[in-house]
Every structure is written in C-alpha cells, then in structure tokens.
Model the fold of this input.
Amino acid sequence: MKKERNLLNLLSDEKCLDASKEAFINANNHKQSAELIAKNKQYGMAVSILILSTEELVKGILLYIQYLSIDIRNISGVYLFFTDHIIRHRLATMINLMYPMLKLIMGIVFKTKEKLHNPESNIQFTNEENAIIYEDENEIKNLFKDLPAMMDWWDEANMNKNKGFYVDYSNSLETPMQVSELEYNQAFVITNIFHKQILDIVYQLEKATDEDKKEIKRNQKDYNIDEILLPIIEERKKEKGIK
Done:
C-alpha cells in the first residue's frame, strides 16, 4: 500500500512559510518557462507547464494557511493535495469560483468600515460592488459570465497537461505539436488569473499583524477550511477507491 506523504506533517508551522515561498517561486519559474517555450511555438508543452505552475500555487497556499496555524494538516486525506494532480485542479477551480465574490465583499466591508469611521471621506463603490450591494441580478450574472468556461477548462486540465507532454492515440494519433496557439493563449489567460488570485490572497494575509494572526488562530473554526477541502477530498478518494 502506498504510504501517505503528507508534506504538512513533515514541517513545523514556521517551516511551512519557507516551503510556501519556495512553491510560489517555483510556480513563477514554471510560468516563465512556459512563456519562453511558447515563443518557440511549442504550445503543447507550454500549456502543460502552465498547468504544473498552478499545481505549485495550490501547494503553496495550503502551506501558507498552515503557517498561519489554521490547522489543516490533520484533515483526513489532505495528503492528496501533495500527491494527486487532479485534486489540485479541483481546488484551483474552487478558488476561481470563490475569489471574485470574496474580493468584492471584502472591498465593500472595508469601504463601509472606512465610511463609518470617517464620515467625511470620499468613499466610492465600483460598479461591481454596487451590483452586489443592490443585488442587481443581471449585472451579477454579467460579472461572472466567464466562470462556466473556466470551470470546463479546469475539468480538462489534467487531460490537457498530458496532451501537451505525450504522444498518444485515441481515434487518431495525438501529439503535443497539435496544440494550437489559441489553446495556449486560453490556458495562459486562465492560469494567469489564478496566479494573480493566489498572490493577492497571500498579499492580504501578509498585511495581517501579529494580533490579527492570533485572532485568526483563535477563530479558525469560523473559516470552515475543512468544509471546503473535505468534499473535494472525499470525491477524489471515492474515484481512486481509497477508504
């Protein structure tokens, strides 16, 4: 039986910070390598490496969360995020879905708080924030119109990664050289959005004071991280026949 390799159990919370930084650096290195390869018109391999870069980002954000002492290392099956490609793509999908709304809500909360403390300040809400505030259904749908296509792309990410690396055969011969520039450009846009989302999350967390971090640790149950991770883990375990 394959041994569970839970990277989180091998590192202290402080070491998780170092590991997360290395994961983010490696993700950026992958992204830069993909751009260089694409310049040589090797689009299949470039797409594959872009997808690998997102997998490193997923590892990095999980390590960073553990560094904040939000205990995820003891979540049953969390090791899969460090050993299984497909489950990392699914968490990336979840972050893609959650991030835009969380970003808007946080912007509204911050501006509302600022207005309460400084009534004379010239606080203006963006069109997107106003759509949420006034529950404008049509505008909200417009804000998230690209999400279905992004979800479809993430569903096929592992297949596309293999497609970009290997010669294969289904109904006909398939090679990485058949991947088009258009497919690469789509992959770059989606993975670049994910890069920016993860780095923005980390940037916001890095602004937290020591007192903020203590508060996060005290109230970690309110963040429901396990409720986000467990359904993804259980679905993947079922697919892999893991009990």
Remarks:
- Strands lie at 168-169, 173-174.
